[in-house]
Amino acid sequence: MTQINNISFRIILFTVLLILNSSYVDARKLGDNWRVVKEDKENNIIIYYRTLETGNTEFKGITYINSSLNSFVALIDDFDKMPDWAYRTEKVVKLRQISNKEAYVYTIHPMPWPFMSRDSVLLSHIDQNPQTYVVTVKGSAVPNYIPLNHDYVRISSGESFWQSTPKGNGTIEVVFQGYGEPGGSLSESVFTSAIFRALVKLYLWKLPYKTLKEMRQQIQNEKYHKRRFNFIQEPPQKVMSRVLTPGSFMIAELKD
Q1: What is the DSSP string of the chain?
Q2: Which of 108, 133, 207, 224 is 20 to 30 Å from the Cα of 85, by its Cα?
Q3: How far apart are CA 201 and CA 19, in angstroms?
Q4: Alpha-carbon span 205 to 213, nearest angstrom
Q5: Cβ neighbours around 132 below 10 Å, total
Q6: Is-contact 133 234, C-beta < 8 A?
Q7: Burial environment of residue 126 by CB neighbours within 10 A (0 to 12, 13 to 18, 19 or more)
Q8: Which architecture characterizes domain 2-239 according to CATH?
Q9: Which percentage of the chain shows pLDDT scores above 90?
Q10: Per-residue pLDDT tens over the stretch 209-233
């Protein structure tokens, strides 16, 4: 067992040295601008990174899906099924429904050994612009809303942002953007916490990429097509901005 632990320690240490080295190279190139870290033309997905003033890495994922705005909201609102398509999500519980547009949501994020799993509490709010028909779902961390569970590390700060924009021909542009403070715990050593933060920075792209990839499949479920919300309006054909041809791939122009 001691030999196995020593081998694991050496592997982790070597990994961290590689991460720190690659992070240094990336930091020289990045500055404050978005940069592409993953592009999948087959699935119409592109992922961007940028570094915030806090030092945290923010991601932005974009894809295009044949779907209505109501189906998009129906999928986001189905918390019980969210672990089926949201990456690193074990359980999602609606703690309190404030209104048909706003709720407190609790999520457990599983992590591989030797790291402790994380949990988070978000205040989620759905809104639609009456002129553009763009639907926005924002989540803001409220870590003290419920007592800490010592089996997990509470994510202390962070924001998530979903946006669905009608593009014509039954297509919506879906943007998934966010960042999070990975947190630390007395149950994790300073060394382990440092490794975790480094790994988050290196592999964060998997969160939006795998989430959007699975979302593209899940949103086609018939039950989401049937749901309608009295606060979500589908746009008339004349206001739709662009039409995508089958198999086309659009890369959005990002502005800070």
Answers
A1: -HHHHHHHHHHHHHHHHHHHHHHHHHHHHHTTS-EEEEEETTTTEEEEEEE-TTS-EEEEEEEEEE--HHHHHHHHH-GGGGGGTSTT--EEEEEEEEETTEEEEEEEE---TTSPPEEEEEEEEEEE-TTT--EEEEEEE-TTSS---TTSEEP-SEEEEEEEEEEETTEEEEEEEEEE-----TTS-HHHHHHHHHHHHHHTTHHHHHHHHHHHHHTT-HHHHH---TT--PPPGGG----PPTT----PPP--
A2: 133
A3: 9
A4: 12
A5: 12
A6: yes
A7: buried
A8: 2-Layer Sandwich (3.30)
A9: 57
A10: 999 999 999 999 999 999 999 999 9
Please state, rounded to an integer, the average pLDDT across all residues of the chain: 79
The candidate with the shortest Cα–Cα distance to 184, out of 224, 153, 144, is 153
Rg of the Cα atoms in the chain? 20
Parallel, antiparallel or unpaired: strands 57-66 and 171-180 = antiparallel
**C-alpha distance across the termini of the chain, in Å:** 50
pTM value > 0.85? no
